[in-house]
Amino acid sequence: MPEEEKNNLTPTYTAEDIAVLEGLEPVRKRPGMYIGGTGVEGLHHLLWEVLDNAIDEALAGYANNITLTLEDNNTASVFDDGRGIPVDVHKQTGKTALETVLTTLHAGGKFGGAGYKVSGGLHGVGVSVVNALSIMMRAEIFRDGKMHVQEYSRGEAKGPVEQTQDTEKHGTKITFQPDKEIFKDIEFDWKTIVSRCRQQAYLTKGVRLTIVDNRKQFVDHPREYHFYFEGGIATYVRYLNLNRKPLHRPIYIQKEQGNYQLEVAIGYSEDFNEHVFTFANNINTPDGGTHLSGFRAALTRALNDYAKKYDLLKTIPAGISGDDTREGLTAVVSVKLSEPQFEGQTKSKLGNPEIKGFVETTLGTQLGAYLEEHPKDARRIIEKSVLSAKARLAARAARETVIRKGALDGMTLPGKLADCSSRNPAESELYIVEGDSAGGSAKQGRERKFQAILPLRGKILNVERARLDRMLSNEEIKTLIVAIGVGIGDEINMKKLRYHRIIIMTDADVDGSHIRTLLLTFFFRHFRVLIEEGHIYIAQPPLYLVQKGKRKQYAYTEEDRADIVEEYSEGKPGEKISIQRYKGLGEMNPGQLWETTMNPENRVLLKVTIEDAQAADEIFTTLMGDEVPPRKRFIQTQAKNVRNLDI
Asked: Is 72 a catalytic residue?
């Protein structure tokens, strides 16, 4: 956008546009209230708040370029070529607008005036919170032909705003270093940043977003990525479907009405799963909200209306349901509004009731028109939904059989399940064990009061390539569903969860890794809530038993083994060091299995989490989907990282 056009988009942006609501004191005392926690996610939340402010300048039409840079000493900076934060004196505080914004909670250009029409930052909270939780922050403002600088520490200015030099640049650069007193781990993760910045570039079409890693402790030479997507979220959907077989070109819908803007991109594929990502003012809303409700209602109605009009529902008289229309659906729903109402400080769900009607009406009208204008695409989508409906009806009967079987079996449950005696889910745990041999050892070695054992025979069905009806015909999967107890599909009831820890315990070889991956696919696709609420774990059995005389130690990694061997080599020279490799759980007797892998006092469990739902979705599609080339590329690129392979 030309400079003169930018300057005409709003009459002014001065200290008058900065509103002040309250002070900064609570942030350092309770940082979790403002950034969701002080772990790795909270650390990156600081960076997202600064990035969001730069994105806001782009959304407002003032910035075309954004650069995020990582430096040594865990320092990060974000520069945008927008207007630059005002540096004139604010009447209410008597300080410059810059210092007011960076040192006062709830102060910013997003509360009123002509600062921003829509924004994704924490409405002025974000940048001051970042300041409060940083040992160092430096603001460099380029506007009105001058460069202005001010430095801060833990939320307080170290001196006045200084005018340092003449410049032709315009914009804002914020540099900060997180405080070690607040964050245990202050190392920014490059992959997480790349994923976030790519996503933001898709959502803000036309902006050039550059990320640079200058950290010498991580890379020998600077690494640099550039993102620029003229196609916006339509390109995003193409990217999300990269490893799937698409049924049509992405459908793109856009509308602006008053203070509301809507962008939707839709692309169906031959996949069986739903992949929908929603955003409000460029903020990811993983729990959806009113914009997602409006999207789903419009999609279901538009497809049913078209199918009924052209008599495409002969085999499904009751019509296609919302679930049917979402099979194989990849979509991005992005809304922008001036007064977003988010649930929770981390903004995981949009609550504006009026946005539902706006999305539903807009999408319903424009999608209906698209289907009329593209009859081949329309029929492919309807046929996909009809097949899903038929499978749904078959799955319902199978699901009812599974649930009824679980209820009729009562306390006995599946015959192969060795249940625990406790009926308190909070203290109970279920070990999913590979094979009858390991299952036998686990049953004998367990603590019967709170540990249940479910042995699986062979590899379960790959649910990435199967609909629910086929999945429910698999005996091993039916046994799993009944044992867990919460039901499946839209009937999941977490109050019926029988074990609060569900532990995958497989052999430390290729087959064991494959079975573990199949189980993780099953949980991610059909019981994601179990992962999100922290109920899924992976057991870590030892790889080796190292013995010398009467001394013995278990090694859980190759490094452990080398260290133990080195330690034992310093003992009596006449004694031989014995190393036993455990390739299967069944090679350990019950006592060893309890001692190393099942005893809560000694064992190591890895909790399964979803840090990035999109990345997890992509990896499961790549590894477990029908498309071979993406899996081949993944194996070729990752092969160099494999150090030991047991076949």
From this structure: no
Residues 472 and 528 in one domain: yes
Q: Do 535 and 454 belong to one domain?
A: yes
Task: For residues 367 and 415, state if they share a domain.
Answer: no
Residue among 230, 209, 206, 277 at smallest CA distance from 618? 277
Say how far apart CA 608 and CA 602 lie, in whole Å: 19
Which residues lie below 8 Å from residue 73, measured CB to CB, with a gap of 6+? 177
Q: Which two tokens stand for residue 616?
A: 């997890």
Q: Name the domain count of the chain.
A: 3
pTM: 0.72
CA distance 584 to 513: 12
**Matching residue, tokens 């209230």:** 33
Distance between CA 514 and CA 516 in Å, rounded? 5
Which among 509, 560, 563, 627 is annotated as catalytic? 509
29 vs 12, higher pLDDT: 29
| 3-class DSSP assignment, residue 65 | strand
- CA angle, 48 as apex, 25 and 98 as ends, to 5°? 50
Which pLDDT tens digit goes with each residue over 6-26?
Answer: 444 555 677 777 665 455 678
Q: Indicate if 418 and 478 belong to the same structural domain.
A: yes
pLDDT digits (tens, 9 = 90+) for 94-144: 899 999 889 887 665 554 444 556 555 443 457 899 999 999 999 999 999
Catalytic residue among 434, 464, 617, 618: 434
**Same domain, yes or no: 122 and 199:** yes
Mean pLDDT across the chain: 86
Angle in degrees, CA 88, 90, 93, rounded to 5? 140
Distance (Å, whole) CA 453 – CA 548:
33
Specify the 3-state DSSP secondary structure of 339.
Answer: coil
Same-domain status, 240 and 213: no
In whole angstroms, how far apart are CA 278 and each of 44, 347, 533, 584, 609? 20, 12, 21, 44, 20
Two structure tokens written together for 431: 């070990």
Is 311 a known active-site residue?
Answer: no
Q: What are phi and psi of 304, to 5 degrees?
A: -65, -40
- Whether residue 509 lies in the annotated active site: yes
Full domain range(s) for residue 525:
410-541+606-641
Q: Which of 41, 354, 511, 626 is catalytic?
A: 511
C-alpha span between 647 and 645 (Å, rounded): 6
Burial class (CB in 10 A: 0-12, 13-18, 19+), 513: middle
**Which helix (H) or strand (E) is 134 found in, with range?**
strand 134-143
Nearest CA to 293 among 305, 303, 285? 285
Angle at which helices 613-624 and 510-526 pack, to 10 degrees? 130
Q: Please identify which of the residues 140, 263, 507, 618 carries the catalytic annotation.
A: 507
Q: DSSP character for 45?
A: H
